[in-house]
Amino acid sequence: MSKIVILTGAGISAESGLGTFRAENGLWAQHRVEDVATPEGFARDPKLVVDFYNARRAQAADAAPNEGHMALARLEAEYDGEVVLVTQNVDDLHEKAGMRRVIHMHGALSGALCGACDHRWDAPRVMAPGDACPACGRGTARPDIVWFGEMPYHMDEIFDHLAEADVFAAVGTSGNVYPAAGFVAEARRFGARTIEFNLERSAVGNLFEDYREGSASWTLPRWVDEMLGHAAPR
Ligand code: APR
Predict the structure, then answer these.
(1) Distance of CA 157 to the CA centre of its chain
(2) Contact yes or no for 166/2 (Cβ under 8 A)
(3) Which of 9, 115, 175, 179 is deepest in the core (most CB within 10 A)?
């Protein structure tokens, strides 16, 4: 059975109104990474960090999946092989689009994590610094987000999928952050065909055999039609 592994980044959610990171007015132009996306930043000022994720959680709650998310859900539902979606995004737009298998390698806004006992639970809509962990009772709740310097989640599973991929696609990611940026080289090592969907070539764009320029909400539905045999390959 053939397997398609898809990696998504902030670009697929851009047309749903959620900001990307490295665009001119992106999140990292508005906030310092070291302040809101590192364990050190959280230790220094937990309220700043918790408020940053509360705002992103509220924005994501109001966001709707776009045609790009819907296309990937259609591929998963109709493809006669296996579709595995790995996302760097922490929003739930793939789930809202009806996707069943979503691997959140950078965590999710919907999750809370205990910094003391590693217990995980559904995050409240608004988290407060010092919220108690429902398991151990200590005031060590934090967003269940993978920060810089921390190990992304599900890496063994992801590398197993890359080793079996017949097709590897990357959508809306700048290719600046590892290990995700290294997935295309890993998939190629095992003979996968590779394709990138972006407004412009990413930092690892040269490693992709195929490139579809444009917004994911436009390029993905057409690619999915091709993969499902509804349209002639380009
Ligand atoms: N369609 C397709 N691609 C798009 C669109 C769109 N409508 N809009 C923007 N893009 C592309 C941009 O060209 C860019 O290459 O999406 C990419 C977004 O890049 P980044 O902002 O760097 O986001 P991402 O690659 O997901 O960042 C990876 O970095 O800061 C960390 O943890 C954070 O998960 C994030 C990781």
Answers:
(1) 15
(2) yes
(3) 9
ipTM: 0.99
Ligand 1 lined by 14 (C-beta under 6 Å)? yes
Same domain, 194 and 166: yes
The length of the chain in residues reads 234
Q: Could you tell me which residues come within 8 angstroms of residue 79 by beta carbon, excluding any fewer than 6 positions away?
A: 4, 227, 228
Catalytic residues: 106
* 176 touches 28 (CB < 8 A): no
Q: What confidence score (pLDDT) does residue 184 get?
A: 98
Looking at the fold, whether 208 and 138 belong to one and the same domain comes out as: no
* Domain that residue 211 falls in: 1-18+66-106+153-230
Are the C-beta atoms of 151 and 178 separated by less than 8 Å? no
Taking the centre of ligand 1 as the mean of its atom positions, its distance from the CA of residue 20, in whole angstroms, is 5
In a shared domain, residues 211 and 178? yes
54 among the known binding-site residues? no
pLDDT tens readout for residues 174-232: 999 999 999 999 999 999 999 999 999 999 999 999 999 999 999 999 999 999 998 77
Total structural domains within the chain: 2
* Atom from ligand 1 closest to the CA of residue 180: 28
pLDDT band at 234 (very low <50, low <70, confident <90, very high): confident
pLDDT at 233 over 80: no
How far is residue 205's CA from residue 226's CA, in Å, rounded to a whole number?
A: 21
Taking each helix axis from N to C terminus, what angle separates 67-78 and 216-227, rounded to the nearest 10 degrees? 20
Structure tokens at 93: 């737009």
CATH number where 44 lies: 3.30.1600.10
